[in-house]
Amino acid sequence: MFETPFTIVGNIVTDPIHRRVGDQETVRFRVASNSRRRTAEGTWEPGNSLFVTVNCWGRVVAGVSAALVKGDPVIVVGHVYTSEYDDRDGNRRSSVEVRATSVGPDLARCTARIDRAKQQTDQQSTDQHDESGDPEVDEAEQSGDALPLTA
In this structure, what DSSP letter does residue 110 have? Predict the structure, then answer.
């Protein structure tokens, strides 16, 4: 099956809905991407909007559920497809949907703190980290705290 890669930058416009489908979990929400343009007078005017339904499966579910809410600026990467259905009046309709492979905050429009999941490491890996010479890094890694992002 041909899958079209797709990236959308926008805001979450619905509360993410967490569901269980069989033995898998899913999160679904809508994203609006709004364009704007500068007029000849130098002011901004709104342009077109694109609304996309985002479906998250697998490992993406935990991060989205824990971190994102309605109104958050996000970047969504995935594969786009259309879904067709009949509405209540019997009219044939279609919607644009994305099966997300990655979802994250748009750091151009917000700040974020990264919490890494604690992973079991063997003694050899721990010894290598202890020899890094940076006590702040070693302490943060051992406590599971996130380090600030720097450029």
Answer: -
Domains of the chain from N-terminus onward: 4-112 (2.40.50.140), 114-151 (no CATH)
Total-model pTM: 0.70
C-alpha–C-alpha distance, residues 76 and 57, integer Å: 13
Whole-Å CA distances, 79 to 7, 12, 53, 87, 108: 8, 18, 12, 24, 23
44-71 pLDDT, tens digit per residue, is 898 899 999 999 999 999 999 999 999 9
Angle between helices 123-130 and 135-143 (to 10 degrees): 150
pLDDT of res. 123: 46
